[in-house]
Automatic annotation (TrEMBL):
Location relative to the cell: Cytoplasm
Catalytic reaction equation(s): sarcosine + (6S)-5,6,7,8-tetrahydrofolate + O2 = (6R)-5,10-methylene-5,6,7,8-tetrahydrofolate + glycine + H2O2; sarcosine + O2 + H2O = formaldehyde + glycine + H2O2
GO-annotated cellular components: cytoplasm
Lineage of origin: Bacteria, Pseudomonadati, Pseudomonadota, Alphaproteobacteria, Hyphomicrobiales
UniProt gene name: soxB_4
EC code: 1.5.3.24
Domain of life: Bacteria
Protein name (Swiss-Prot/TrEMBL): Sarcosine oxidase subunit beta
Xref: InterPro entries: FAD-dep_OxRdtase, FAD/NAD-bd_sf, Rhodanese-like_dom, SoxB
Any one biological process term the GO annotation gives: tetrahydrofolate metabolic process
PROSITE patterns for this protein: RHODANESE_3 (PS50206)
Length: 416
């Protein structure tokens, strides 16, 4: 069923009784051409593009929980392509271009809102770094504007410009950045994939990867053995656990990242704002709540919840940027598991195990990548060759010393 203004009207007249479920709940077949482990944004998008762009429809997405229960439904919804490095920028710009046409493409309202993102800077050195980033973006054809303090003050008069430790000097703006309703992205891709014949199988945890003569032949699951010709892993925070089932040790650590939502307020933050002197980012949802986040919890974990010390730390950074935040009540918070790679950049690559493909290492920033990640992973699975924009996102780059160290932090996964 295609969604349109007409279908809305007609269904309204019929008492909304005729809406078909957005996707089926099939039992698994015994064999698929491609199985994708993980019904998050990346797994569902990959299945969608496999069917739509490459005509491979005998595909299953296996999700241990319900779709959207992982990070795709837990993130702070920010999209942007303000990257510095050659290995990242064209890929994230591809993602942003795909976001721009996504709702029409998969016929689902994902509330894509290009309300802009502004990264504040607080020192001469940081201004120089942001200028360099802005120039690199422009050289790649990506929009970037450097704003001085007065231009920022006009947009956001309530920030603490004269903070003794972190005075605001200006900001780097990407006006095409913004927010997207995250769970709708999972639903839109799930529906689009299902319509093209992909089986989305929920409550189906993968518990083992079967190999014969070194080749992957299928997976052991909560619903029994399911065979496949190719196996794609898109398990985000659980990537290392799943890869271990095929004897692979991944160059990544899992950490908790928390997100927070305040009580509803009248509109006062138009776009996304990030604090440059600490880790804090905030936007305002359409319901009025401030949606914000900051640093990771500092320890490795597979739990989808964090600790109070980090809540205090994040809120402190927020208050240094917006003093008025101290008057706002926090409504709720949650956590998600981040697959932090050693250089902060992702991996979309074949693995040394035959028929096994990996999509992982998204750290803090995988939501914005979802459409490009899905398309490029589908490309890899279909053609056995990397998409042009993911040539550097190799698994063996850590061995070869070709890191994509966007932040220049070195091999320190919890700092990216
Ligand atoms: C609090 C928070 C804020 C964030 N904010 C942003 C942001 O503003 N912008 C941005 O770009 N990114 C953000 N991110 C990061 C982003 O959400 C992730 O990088 C991205 O969602 C990961 O890809 P995914 O959607 O496929 O992951 P997920 O949705 O986590 O999908 C992976 C799926 O695999 C399933 N799975 C795991 N193991 C198995 C198994 N054995 N068998 C079957 N299924 C399995 C999981 O249940 C899960 O559903 C944030 C993350 C968090 C937690």
């Amino acid at each position: 069923m295609r969604y349109s203004a007409l279908s809305l009207l007609l269904n309204g007249f019929r008492g909304n009784k005729d809406w078909a479920p957005a996707w089926r709940h099939p039992e698994p077949k015994s064999h698929y051409d491609v199985i994708i482990v993980g019904g998050g944004g990346h797994g569902l998008a990959a299945a969608y593009y496999l069917a739509k762009e490459f005509g491979i429809k005998n595909v299953a997405v296996l999700e241990k929980n319900y779709i959207g229960s992982g990070n795709v439904g837990r993130n702070t919804t920010i999209i942007r392509s303000n990257y510095l490095l050659e290995g990242n920028n064209p890929f994230y710009e591809l993602a942003l271009k795909l976001w721009e046409g996504l709702e029409q493409d998969f016929n689902f309202n994902a509330m894509i809102s290009q309300r802009g993102i502004l990264n504040l800077f607080h020192s001469d050195a940081q201004r120089d770094a942001y200028t360099r980033r802005g120039n690199a973006m422009r050289l790649h054809g990506v929009d970037a504007d450097l704003l001085d303090r007065e231009a920022v003050r006009k947009m956001l008069p309530f920030l603490d410009y004269d903070n003794a430790r972190f005075p605001i000097q200006g900001g780097l703006a990407q006006r095409r950045g913004g927010t997207v309703r995250h769970d709708a992205v999972a639903w839109g891709y799930a529906r689009g994939a299902d319509m093209r014949g992909v089986d989305i199988i929920q409550n189906c945890e993968v518990t083992g990867i079967r190999r014969e003569n070194g080749k992957v032949t299928g997976v052991e699951t909560a619903k029994g053995f399911i065979g496949c010709t190719k196996l794609g892993l898109a398990a985000a925070g659980n990537s290392s656990r799943v890869a271990e089932m095929a004897g692979l040790k991944l160059p990544m650590e899992s950490h908790v990242l928390q997100a927070f939502v305040s009580e509803g307020l009248k509109p006062f933050i138009d776009g996304v704002v990030t604090f440059g002197a600490g880790h804090f980012y905030v936007s305002q949802s359409d319901k009025g709540g401030l949606v914000f986040g900051g640093d990771l919890d500092g320890y490795n974990s597979y739990a989808q919840r964090g600790n109070l010390a980090t809540v205090e730390h994040v809120v402190e950074a927020g208050k240094a940027m917006i003093p008025g935040l101290s008057r706002v009540r926090l409504l709720r918070s949650w956590g998600g598991i981040m697959d932090m790679s050693m250089d902060g950049s992702p991996i979309i690559d074949r693995t040394p195990v035959e028929n096994l493909y990996l999509n992982a290492g998204w750290c803090y920033g995988g939501f914005k990548a979802t459409p490009a990640s899905g398309l490029c992973f589908a490309h890899l699975l279909a053609k056995d060759a990397p998409h042009d924009t993911t040539r550097q996102m190799r698994l063996d780059r850590f061995e070869r010393g070709y890191l994509i160290d966007e932040k220049g932090q070195g091999s320190q996964p919890n700092l990216h």
